[in-house]
Amino acid sequence: MTRAAREFRPFARRGRTAIVAIVATSALVLAASTAVSIWSTGKSQNRAAVVEIAGRQRTLAERYVTQILLVRAGADASPERTGILLTQSVNTLLNGGTVPAVEGDDDEVVLQRETDPRIRAEIVEQRKLIHDLLATGTALLSHRPVASLKETAGERIQTSDQLLRLRVLSALTSNVSLNSAREIAAKTDRNVTDTITLQIALGAAGVLVSLLLAWALIATTRRQTAHFRSLVTASTDLVLVLSGGTCRYASAAVERLTGQPYSQLTGQGIMRVIHEDDHEQFRAAQQGDIKELVFRMRNAAGQWRHLEAHLTDLRTDRHVRGIVLNSRDITERVRLEQELTRQAQRDNFGSQLVEALEMADDEASAYDVVRRAMSEIDEQTPMELLLSDSSRAHLDQTAVHPNAGAPSCPVESPYSCVAVRRGHPVVFETSESLNACPKLRDRENGPCSAVCVPISFMGRSLGVLHATGPEGAPPSKEQVAQLTTLATQSGARIGTVRAFEKTQLQAQTDGLTGLINRRTLETELRGLMRQGRPFALALADLDHFKRLNDTHGHEEGDRSLRLFSHVVRQVLRDDDFVARWGGEEFLIALPDADAAAAVEVMDRIRASLARTLDGGQVRFTASFGITDSTAAPSLQELIQLADVGLYLSKASGRDRVSVGEWTDTREALGSANGTKRAPAIHRAAAEDEPNLS
Amino acid sequence: MRRAPLTVCAVLVGLALIAAVVVSQRAEATPKSPSVVRVVERDFHISVVHGYLTAGTVVFHVTNRGPDEHEFIVVRADRGLPLRADGITLDEDALQKNIVGSVEPAPGGQTNTLRVSLERGRYALVCNMYGHYMGGMHAPLVVR
User: Fold this and answer.
1) Counting CB atoms within 10 angstroms of each CB, which of A357, A426, A495, B16 has the fewest?
2) Which of B107, B130, B135 has its CB closest to that of A157?
3) Model ipTM value
């Protein structure tokens, strides 16, 4: 059978009930004791009167004999009166009532009926003896013989002396009266003793009950106290009671947290485990000025723990008389909040970085963003961005911290960098440790710490973001995280820009010669025309190119095309344009030049080509047709005019420069209706005589 | 296990032998049992119940039937018993040598025992409380 668990009621009325029971018991015992005392006192008073009357009987019996003798001697006496007193007294002793007063001795006394059987038997015996005494006395006074008197009390007086008989009866009466008086007195004593015993028993019982109730009260109080002590002791909440600027109580949780004994925490000792920066706030809390408080307390391992406290002002509570500070450890929450804050800052940094990089449409702009981001991460930490070139064989320093400068890592190729090889950020506490990167040793500024974050794009390594700090104090985790973000985002952007530029370049240039293509040049020319900027056009064509291809092969033809392109680029100004127009044709645009100037430039190209081919390569020449922006309003017509000029050069024997004009065109082409014929060059080329040298 | 009953029997036989020896020795040490006299006192006479009394130890069982208190005195009474000057009570001082034994006054209902050694002769059993002797509380006793 299991015993049901008792419900714990911390604020049960049991304690109050016990106190009430103690008081009630004490009152009850006191009342009973008082009642017993009153009853006993009353009874004792009655008994004293009874003893007095019983004792008086002895005197009356002797007085009766004396009075008999006096009467017989002729003196004046009243034995009858004494006999009546004796009789009334003994009857009153037996049955209760009023005992008459004896002259000069005492007053009337009211007696209770005797209830004790033994005493009653003695009084009855006394009454019989008084009867015999009075009968004898009466017989003596009336001179009658006494021998014939009946003896009612069991006595057997064997004497012929009548007076002796009277004296013997008096003696017996006296003795019986004395004995009954003694017995009554003894009973009174026993009553008093019983009363005292009863009172002692009552008192003892009251004390015992009170002790039991007090024990129950103490047990209840202890149980409640133990319960609350267990709650407080086992609680992870830290409880402090502050009073008068000192700590009066510190719960077990405080001892466990700080590793300090209770004696070291109370008084001013508590301040030793509270962070110095929080002292002022803590003192304000002791004054009851604040209701909530966050402070730091040093734990047993010497770490600072963040505590959140709620303060309750119980200075007016006489059981506390202080400010109760309930604290709980919120270090983990603070850490998470800080982490979230850092994460938000990182996210903010990352989002700002992404936006900035999105606005960078070339590598230079991206590098500028990287430099500014470096400053954002830390003003004092040297940083550099090392990126590989197009060959991905060499690392170049592309961005440096604008204020702190570069750590100047000597790494030359991406795969010489340990961070690139590992593919994740690497932190070195000191350049002097055995497992430190060898590139960190022997730096100009001596031993250092370092962080190396690899940069990649589409799975291919682009380089490394490198930062250094004082030896033993590398950039913080937060900075490493930001550097990682910077590396990731900048790598993505630079990779994208590089890919875009490469694609754009491929779209704008000719793959064989590296010159811009026809579409690009047309765009440029339309731009010049929109601006109203004058320019000259020259259409060039390699002479007898088909034959060159057929004779020396296409590789030699390609080489000739690249050579011609190179010669043209060398002769032209930087802001001049040259495009491969198609096949062996090239279109050259000279801004701010007219046809005459273009003729001179083309002649210089021809001369330069001739000089270049003096080196023993396969020789070839080129013909040019010239026009300028003043000759026609549209680009198409200008190109046709240049084509006409080229035709004229071809028709005139090649390796020369001709300016195209509409008249010449009509005459040269023999057009009946005067419509423009294009492209004339193709037909002229088809009629080209082989002129190989 | 089989030895247990034998051991118990042996112990019982031994104890029986020892008890028999002790009883026989005590019987030999008590040559004669005391005479017993039953005395009843009441107001105011003494009743004595006894058989044939011989000299030796006599045990009195004195019962007071009351209601008054009574004492009990055994006094040799070969000659008469002297009274005090009051003529009511015996002169115990004069009888000092003759008083064999006594029981102090006892309340009614009480029984006391008095063991005395009596020689041959006449004795009186009295209560000498005030007036009791003359009131009739005396009885003769003869030891042969």
Assistant:
1) B16
2) B135
3) 0.75
